[in-house]
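quick one, 344 residues, struct below
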Amino acid sequence: MPRYKNDEGQTPVRWRGITWESGQERDVPLFCPSHLGLTKVSDAPLVPGVVLLAEDVVVPAGGSVRKTIPPSLSGWMWLAVYPLSGSGSFSLGDGAAAIPVSTSSWWAGDVCWGRAESICILSDDGGVFRVVAEERPSRPMAGLPDIAAKPLSRYLVTADAQALWTITSGSVTWDANGVWGAGYGSGSSWHGVEMSGTLPNPLVIDQASDVNIFLECSFVSSNPTWALFYIMVRGLSAEGGERFVVYFTDESANSPSVSGYVVVGGTTWWTSASQSYCASGGRKIVGLSKRGNTWTISIDGPVVTTKTLAVDAWDIAKFTISMQQFRTYAVPTLAVHRLEVEYV
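---
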């Protein structure tokens, strides 16, 4: 690890729990910023990279491949396994439990490196599996300076052309994914589907957190002229409480008065009758960003509005994307192409 010296005659320097007295040399596991005034004595051994492993692993049919993961400085890492082709399962370390993955259902989460110094991927039919492991400093280790936490930079991400979830309703009656009750319509004229995804770890947003939430979805109707669509995106706590809601309708000949709204922390703070539509066959891009107490919503690129809103600590454990349709003979398909959550 790098060695730094505080030159003779200089005042003591303290950084991340380490103190250099005048004339003292110290080894540290991170590079020190130049404004501290320390002199770098040596680069060796080098600071370990943030990316521990990034590889497309080819697994033969009926076979398995084990990959060793280099040590994480903090003891923690963010690990993702994403099949580019085929399907299979993987186990961590010497564990017997296997986690299934496929091109439509991949896995990512925080892992203690001491429990998973390697990963074993198995596949009956063979495939290519992208494995990414990133250093995630999250807890101070004995003898090491306090390392600022690196939160997860992504949760659910797919290629632009690939749907993360797709639900197609092929019946005029309620299906297993129906989520809309009598309060949303009458008889069989209303039909609804809901897609949901649980995050590997709850997303925690507090006053000090700056975050971006990005959703790209689309729907297709077999008869858009005679169907009304309402799409609702919700971020839910582990207990089911709504943290934010984004709602918008379609643009069709049967619904000239489109509308939309956003609810953050239980407070409705944006409504629109002109920028909330989602045309059948097109994509809807919704962005929410938080900088301090300032929230910004963007619809299809342009910023719609900003609002100052104080937020207590949130935990967002689940996302749901719901679609409600009027006139069930127009069969809808709703797809989520990308859902990203990042700290900035």
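The chain has a mean pLDDT of 67.
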